[in-house]
Amino acid sequence: MTRLFSKRSASTRSRSARPLSLRRRSRLPWQWLILAVVTCLLAVSSALVWNSAASHFGSSAIGTQLLNGEAAAAQQAPPLSLGDALDRSIQNFQKRLTTREQEVAIALGGPPPAFAGKLIRDIYLPSNEKAVALTFDDGPMPVYTEQILDILKRENVKATFFVIGRMFQSNPKIGQRVAQEGHLLANHTWTHPYHRHSPAAAASEIDRTTNIVTQYTGQVPRFYRPPGGVLNNGLDRYAQSKGYTTTLWGADTGDWRRPAPSVIVSRVMNNVHPGSIVLMHDGGGKRDNTVAALPVMIAQLKAQGYRFVTLSELLQLQVRSAQPQQAAANPEPAPPIAPQT
After folding, report:
1. Which of 138, 236, 281, 282 is catalytic?
2. What is the pLDDT of residue 71?
3. Are 205 and 144 in contact (CB under 8 A)?
4. How far is Cα 129 from Cα 276, in angstroms, rounded to an integer?
5. 137 in catalytic set
6. Among 137, 138, 255, 282, which one carries the catalytic annotation?
7. Residues 49-71: pLDDT tens digits?
8. What are phi and psi of 277, to 5 degrees?
9. What are phi and psi of 162, to 5 degrees?
10. DSSP 60
């Protein structure tokens, strides 16, 4: 046992005392040398690439700074609201439209681009363009809005409905019927207020109404009517900043005071002209006199040769009627006469 232990110890001592061969000593240094050479080559090539890129893009430093600035601004900008996103999408879409495609887009409910963010009080068309726009405020309301829709359907008349958001929330099926029967839905705020609004309060009144109409019908209201026609209370400023066409009227029936149906009709017939915007109400109180006056009014207007259009169609007629006048005011120069040979 002692001998075996001493033999192993001697063998171990003998192996530890044996000198390393040249091959065994040199294997580790050569590996480090190769690694160092490769590292140097990579460093040199990286420096060359960096210098080349710097010289190539040095002349466009200003453009690079602008791009970096835009990227930083985009990162710092707050997320868009639904209304802002819709506005931006519509603007980008309209930039790519042909004239014919713009007409299709307008027929879907938007005003011509020239009227976006503007205030209109009434429209005047040429005498041979006998079109009027019937508008109804303060709905949708059970019974009265439904009766008005029945009359419009029977007479094959299209109209524009300025809805109150909370009324639409209470009567979404009636609001959906308005859209399904081909009428235009527009914005009349959420609660029908008159007082001054902060920007945030104005945004809530208008955006909530547009959002609920879009949610239930797919229409995106682009016309806004201030409650009571009150301007400069923050609501109209916000609406116009978002591209809405703020719309007043030309022929006021005064039906909110509940005059006799004959008075409602006479007020329209005494003030109508090609391009008239007629103000009526389908909500906000008892509207049985308005319902009774409507078919008589339609019949008399038709007898005078008038047809009925939505607000978007009325503004498109205004754009078309202005084009020949602009062409006459700016005639193209006559081509030069070729010299006689």
Report:
1. 281
2. 46
3. no
4. 11
5. yes
6. 137
7. 455 544 444 444 444 443 455 44
8. -105, 115
9. -90, 105
10. G
Peptide bond into 140 cis (omega under 30): yes
Q: How far apart are CA 290 and CA 137, in angstroms?
A: 12
Helical segments of the chain, H only: 2-17, 22-57, 61-76, 82-95, 99-107, 144-155, 165-170, 172-180, 199-217, 235-241, 261-269, 288-303, 311-329
What number of other Cβ atoms are within 10 A of residue 288's Cβ?
A: 13
The CA–CA distances, whole Å, from 250 to 140, 247, 261, 278 equal: 22, 10, 19, 6
Q: Rounded CA gap, 195 and 241, in Å? A: 19
DSSP state of 20: P
Dist CA 208 CA 229 (whole Å): 20
Tokens of 322: 């202005």
- Collapsing DSSP to helix, strand or coil, 274 comes out as coil
Tens digit of each residue's pLDDT (9 = 90 or more) over 161-184: 999 999 999 999 999 999 999 999
Q: What is the mean pLDDT of residues 63-85?
A: 51
Among 146, 205, 222, 138, CA closest to 180 = 146
Of 105-119, 142-156, 158-172, the range with the lowest mean pLDDT is: 105-119
7 alpha-carbon distance from chain centroid:
95
d(CA 239, CA 203): 8
The C-alpha atoms of residue 50 and residue 205 are separated, in whole angstroms, by 55
H/E stretch holding 133? strand 131-139
**Three-class DSSP category at 55:** helix
281 is catalytic: yes
Whose CA is closest to 109, among 316, 300, 250?
Answer: 316
What is the pTM assigned to this prediction? 0.67
Q: How many beta carbons lie within 10 A of that of residue 32, not counting itself? A: 9
**Per-residue confidence (pLDDT) for residue 323, from 0 to 100:** 75
Nearby residues of 82 by Cβ (< 8 Å), 6 or more positions away: 207, 211
Position 104 scores a pLDDT of: 47
Amino acid 86: pLDDT: 54
* pLDDT confidence of residue 269: 98
State the Cα–Cα distance between residues 182 and 175, nearest whole angstrom.
12
Nearest Cα to Cα of residue 219 among 131, 310, 284: 310
